[in-house]
Every structure is written in C-alpha cells, then in structure tokens.
Amino acid sequence: MMSNLAVLPIIIPLIAGILLAFIHKKTILARNTAKLLSILNTGVAAYIFYYVYQNGTVTLETGGWEAPYGIVLVADLLAITLVLTTNIIGLACVFYAQHSLAEKKESFYFYSFFFLLITGVSGAFLTGDLFNLFVFFEVLLMASYALITLGGEKVQLRESIKYVLVNLFSSIVFVTTIAFLYSVLGTVNMAQMAERVQEVEQRGILTTIGILLFFVFGTKAALFPLYYWLPKPYTVPNPVISALFAALLTKVGVYSIIRMFTLVFVHQTSLTHDLFIWIAGFTLVFGVIGALSTDNIKLIIAYNIMPAVGFMIMGIGIYNQTAISGSVYYLVHDMIIKAALFLLVGAISYLAGTSDLRKMRGLINQYPLLGWLLFISAFVLAGVPPFSGFIGKLLILQGSFAEGEIIIAIIGLLSSLLILYSLMKIFVRGFWGEKDETIIVNKKAANAFTWPIAFLIFFSVLLGVGAELFYPVVEDISNDLLNPEIYIDSVFKE
Amino acid sequence: MEIIMSVVAGILFAAGIYNILQKQLLRIVIGTVILSNGAHLFIITMGKLKRGAPPVLEYGITEYADPLPQALVLTSIVISFGLTSLLLVLSYRAAQENETDNMEKLRGNHDE
C-alpha cells in the first residue's frame, strides 16, 4: 500500500490545478486554496522524502502491470529530494504571487497553470519510463507557455514565440530519439533499457542515440551551444513566473541528463563524459560573459543560470563519487537560490521602478533588508564558505582534481569569481551610493516581498550551515547513481 | 519498406527545417507541423513495418502489428495538435501586437 506514495506528488497538484480552474474568478478564494494545497503538497512530499530515506526506493507499478509492461513511477532518493525542493520553491512562489501579479493576471488561471507546472516537474522527476518523461515534459512546457505569455504584452509575445519554437523543436527531436531507442532496444522503460544496453555493451548506435538525447536535454537545460534561447525569454514574464522557470525548468533537463547518463549510457564514458566536461567548460565561460555584459539586473540573473548548469554537468562529466555528490548538492542548492534571486530581483525592479542598473542607486537607505538579503544570496551563489554553494563546488572541484582535470577546475574557480562580481555589481551600484529622493518608499510591498524570499534564503543557508545533516543524504544519492543495479533491482523487484 | 519510409521521413525533416529557417511566421508554424509529421512517421517506421493484423484482439489471428508505437504516436499526435493550435494563436497575437510577421523585425531593441 505504501507504494502508492509515489503518485501523490503528481496527483495532488493535478487535482489542485483542475479544482482551481473552476474558481479562478473568485481571486481571494483561489489564492487561499492555492496556498493551502501548496502547503499540503509540500507536507506530503516531505513525508515521502522521510519514508524513502528510511526504507529505500518506493516503486509504483501503475495499474498493477508488472515493470517493463506498464508505466512505473520510481521515487528514489534523488527524485524525491528534487520533488521536495520543487515544492518548497512552489510554496514561496505562491505566497509571493499575490503581491507581484496584477489581480487580472492572477484571476486568469494563474494558479491552475502553476499547479500544472508543478505536476509536470514532479512527474518528470518521478517517472521511470522515457515516453512518459516526454509526456511530463510537455505537461510542464505547456503550462510554461501559458505562464510566459500571461498578460500578453508586446515583449512577452515576441520573446515567447522563440521560447515555444525552440522547445517545440527539441520535443520533436526527443520523440525521434525515442523512436530510435525503441527500434534498437525494443523498450521505453528506463530500467529495462539500462539492462539491455548493458547486454550489448553500448554499441556505436547507442552512443549516438545517447548524444542525441543529450542534445534534447541540453537544449532544455541551456548548455553551451544551445543556450541562446534562454536569457531573454526568462526576463519578460512576471518575476514570480521567471523564478519558477529558472528554478525548475532547466533543472528538469539537468536531472534527465543525470538520470540517463548514470543509469543507461554508462559504458562509453571516455566519449560521452569527456564531451560533458568540454561543454561544461564552455557553458561556464559563456554564461559569465553574458552575466558581465549587461546592466539589466533581470538579465544578469538569467545569464547566471548557465554557469550553474555548467557546474552540474561538470560533476557528471567527471563521474566519480565526490563529483556526483557535488553535482547533486549543487543542483538542490541552485534550485533554491535561483528562485530566491529571481524573486529578489523582481522585488527590486518593482520597488525601484526600473531594472536598469544605470538608473538605480542608494536603495539600501530605503530597503535595508532586501539589500542584505541580496548580499547574502550573492555569497551563497558564488560559493563563499559557510553557505551552500561552497560545499557543492568544493566537492566537484575535489572530484576533478582526483581525476586530474585541472583546467576545468581552474575555469570553475575563475567563473565563481566572476559570478560574485556580477552579483556584487547589482549590490554596489544599486544599493550603495547617495539616497535617491525620487523613489517613493513602499514599505508594505517591500515587507510582503521579503518574507517568501527570506524563507528561501533561510533554506539555502541551512543547506550550507547544516551540511553535516544533508551530506549523508547526498552521499546515498550518489551511491545509488553510481550503482545502476540498485535502480534496476528496485524496478524489477527480484 | 522501412527504407522508403525512412527516406520519406528524412524528406519531411528537411522540408520542415527549411521552413523553420524562413522569415515569415506562418511558414515557421507550417515547418513545425511538417517536422512533427516526420517524427510521427518515423516512430511508426522504427516500430518495424512487418505485415500483421491491426492490433485488435480477434479469434484465430496470431500475427499482429506492434501496438506500442501506435499508442506512442497517438499520444504524440494529440500533444502536437495542442502545441500547433497554441502556436497559431500565439503567432496571430504576436503579429497583431508587434504589427509584423517578419522574424527579422521581431528582435526587439534596448529601449523597452
């Protein structure tokens, strides 16, 4: 009976999304229902996390069909950790939304789309079937298309066309790749795919398919040659929507890369994983160059998504226990801090009335708390020791030194410096300086914005300060990832 | 048979990509439709086109066509219908708001 737990993080937001579509016009009711359901969902996810940590992977064969024939949902420790993180971010965003969105946008099915996005993301984390992963990708992408155009401004419509087209194209490639895989392996179940790839020791065609899959997920995750679509579309929607996108969408791509290249395509690592290291290096460099190139604070944060993704892929490329622990740690850390940063920048540009750094100064006089939160989160993101970014990066760098990958480690360290610079630029030029008398102080809005942000930054700091507490979980995860048999056995139940 | 189908799918992909790289918004939408048709044809082809009865249980028949790719393709078709209709409405609205359907002019500038 406990195996039914695995479906709850998908079914609760799905029902919530449907329910909220009926009451979308009663804004206050919808708002409170959404908050309540979000808390419930987070609670459930936390319970499942605890259960999985105590008892091992929960596998649900939907419809009672045996493993390779039906769809399986696999709540292993990695998946459920990410689902829990997703829900924590969703919680902060729901409480932020009402202050940031105009009532008209809020009543136009915002909460429905929000919950459908959460459904898609949780489903993508939990599924054990490649075609089902595609379907959940589409669920979350559809919700994201609706959210990115919510409001229908000129810029939004213009940028969202590019966003939709790139994602549509990569989805078509995804379907084609599934067709290839099905013709070679005769299955779309991930565990069975892993078994069969092992039997034929990953012939050349399978490595090709692996790289095709990497192309698909790399497009979703904004890796080096495929990132061009990301920065601008992420700055056009409302801050709360950008925060959801930045925290969740690219990370689903990263998760899929982690899953596929630690479970299925693990027999030609000299080829695939070396490619990852190169791509990670370029992603780091181009991401920070982008972040330094602009004075638009939203764009700075959007470009900062890429170096973070670069770090995670670097950990996968290095492929030893330390580096993979580092990747997982960095993934969880980055989801939380990116959401917090987007919410922060959204609040700053709302309160200052502009997102152009050249037009802001001295905000610390009016909004000290927001300023210090930005200061802390800059340190968290850059990886200054007591905070969570440090531990992830340290583990990845340790791993890379152990494998003798010195150049990539140096690129990683230098890019961290530039990440810190790009964020400190916001702090120094926006918050320092003379008091700007033209700004009308809006204490009420500032307070309302601060709480959800502080909530996320609290988790982020906890993740760093309480690293001793979280490290065993991460170590278990990386142990599972390095031994695919554990996953396969939990699906097929010997 | 598979070879012919693969070539046809390849032609569809080429035509779709050619259309996606055009300037006019509507041609891009048409390109995505052609591309998804290519992908769907490809799924059916990759599921092996060996002869057999339609996958409906009937008495006395032992050879069936593989039902799984057909189910996959059905799902994928519905999804791409949804996406295409969304994309059509989106491009209609975008062309209306920005007063152009030329992708070159939809770049935007820094003054916004």
Automatic annotation (TrEMBL), chain A:
Subcellular location: Cell membrane; Membrane
GO-annotated cellular components: plasma membrane
Cited InterPro entries: CPA3_Na-H_Antiporter_D (IPR050586), NADH_UbQ_OxRdtase (IPR003918), ND/Mrp_TM (IPR001750)
Domain NADH:quinone oxidoreductase/Mrp antiporter transmembrane: 128-418
Chief localisation class: membrane
Domain of life: Bacteria
GO BP: any one term: ATP synthesis coupled electron transport
GO terms assigned for molecular function: antiporter activity; NADH dehydrogenase (ubiquinone) activity
Keyword Transport: yes
Membrane topology category: Multi-pass membrane protein
TM helices/strands, residue ranges: 6-24, 36-53, 73-96, 108-127, 133-152, 164-185, 205-228, 240-263, 275-292, 299-319, 339-357, 369-391, 406-428, 449-471
Alphabetical keyword list: Antiport, Cell membrane, Membrane, Transmembrane, Transmembrane helix, Transport
PANTHER family according to UniProt: NA(+)_H(+) ANTIPORTER SUBUNIT D1 (PTHR42703:SF1), NADH DEHYDROGENASE (PTHR42703)
Protein family membership: Belongs to the CPA3 antiporters (TC 2.A.63) subunit D family.
This protein's name: Multicomponent Na+:H+ antiporter subunit D
Species this chain originates from: Sediminibacillus albus
From TrEMBL, chain B:
Location(s) in or outside the cell: Cell membrane
Main location: membrane
Annotated TM spans: 6-21, 28-47, 67-90
Membrane topology: Multi-pass membrane protein
InterPro entries: CPA3_antiporter_subunitC, NUOK/Mnh_C1-like
UniProt keyword annotations, A-Z: Cell membrane, Membrane, Transmembrane, Transmembrane helix
A Pfam family of this chain: Oxidored_q2
GO CC annotation: plasma membrane
Family: Belongs to the CPA3 antiporters (TC 2.A.63) subunit C family.
Protein name, entry field: Multicomponent Na+:H+ antiporter subunit C
